[in-house]
Design a protein that fits this description.
158 residues, mainly alpha, elongated
Length: 158
């Protein structure tokens, strides 16, 4: 019973760490694209509001001058809005490859069974959580894709 409680607590810690780390890296993807386009940006944490409303959809936000964003080319705007999703996909590929490599080790090196199995379960948990995070960033009502299409369909301001 103690092992189940320990595993459950570990899973909760991994899930929270996943949410914080992946959100930061997602917003960092937007920030890097903005900086590359010549726009200053900053990432601000919104922990208090998220704990109050229990909505992790805006854990951190990348702030920038939208007037400058409107002046960018279509390609630059696309890079800004998709920067976070590209970051999520890169992390997903890396975690998946490491997990596959460890499964490969597990098959051929059974002496490391318990420790490898623990690491593999953790990595697979991260992969699943990141997939949910990525789906949310693509299909959520206020997702990056949704914002991108709203932004490009707005008429230019005078």
């Amino acid at each position: 019973m103690g092992i189940l409680i320990t595993f459950f607590l570990f899973f909760i810690i991994v899930a929270v760490a996943d949410l914080v780390i992946f959100t930061y890296l997602h917003e960092l993807g937007h920030k890097k694209a903005l900086n590359k386009a010549g726009i200053d940006a900053r990432i601000a944490w919104n922990l208090k509001a998220n704990l109050k409303h229990l909505k992790p959809t805006s854990l951190a936000t990348c702030y920038f001058d939208e007037k400058k964003l409107k002046k960018l080319s279509f390609k630059q705007k696309k890079a800004v809005f998709l920067g976070g999703i590209k970051s999520d996909l890169l992390i997903l590929v890396i975690l998946s490859l490491v997990s596959l490599f460890l499964w490969f080790l597990l098959v051929f090196k059974t002496g490391l069974l318990i420790s490898l199995l623990f690491v593999i379960i953790t990595l697979n948990t991260l992969v699943v959580l990141l997939i949910f995070h990525l789906i949310n960033n693509i299909f959520h009502k206020n997702s990056d894709i949704d914002k991108f299409f709203k932004f490009i369909t707005q008429p230019p301001s005078p």
